[in-house]
Write a structure and sequence with these properties.
The protein is of the alpha+beta class. Helices cover about 45% and strands about 20% of the residues.
Length: about 180
């Protein structure tokens, strides 16, 4: 009687013993493993850039809401003599950032948010007439009434969790201005 359960093991053992089987195993080790690892890096990088883009869009929309909500259109607007109240701009920005990124009032993430940690507003500056032309701390040239914002938060790592940690810290730097010529 043949031992049918040992037949697959003898076949795999014979594959290693001849040169063709060894070449197949060597090909798998030298090509396929690095290929899949590189593919995972590409997928993770793409997903992290998508999350960064979503946060960047939320910051831009919140800063535009803060700019629009802190001044009124009138004769001063036509001559670019606009003054933005920093405290009003900050409160408006914070309100709209919490709505755009699905955060609560203290900037903690709600279900459905891309952030998994509280969002920190690291820098918030308002550039009014007389404070520009200037460069923001990030090196961007400011030549109109604008808002400079830097936020930081953490997101879950999408693919390579066990290898590089569970979370990634993201930092978004944006300068949003009112540039209008009539």
């Amino acid at each position: 009687m043949s031992r049918w359960f040992t037949v697959p093991f003898r076949r795999s053992a014979s594959a290693v013993s001849n040169s063709r089987g060894f070449g197949s195993i060597l090909f798998a080790l030298l090509f396929l493993i690095p290929f899949f690892t590189f593919s995972f890096f590409i997928v993770e990088h793409t997903q992290l850039r998508l999350m960064h883009g979503m946060a960047d869009d939320a910051v831009v929309m919140s800063a535009l809401a803060a700019l629009k909500g802190t001044y009124s259109y009138g004769a001063d607007f036509a001559y670019e003599d606009i003054s933005i109240d920093p405290s009003d701009a900050y409160s408006t920005f914070r309100e709209y950032l919490s709505k755009n990124m699905k955060l609560d009032g203290s900037l903690n993430p709600l279900p459905g948010s891309i952030a998994v940690s509280p969002v920190e507003i690291l820098d918030f500056r308002v550039y009014n007439p007389g404070s520009y032309p200037a460069f923001c701390p990030g090196g961007v040239y400011i030549n109109a009434p604008s808002i400079h914002v830097v936020i930081s938060f953490q997101v879950d790592r999408p693919v390579l969790r066990g290898l590089f940690g569970e979370r990634v810290t993201m930092k978004v730097h944006r300068d949003v201005d009112i540039f209008c010529r009539f």
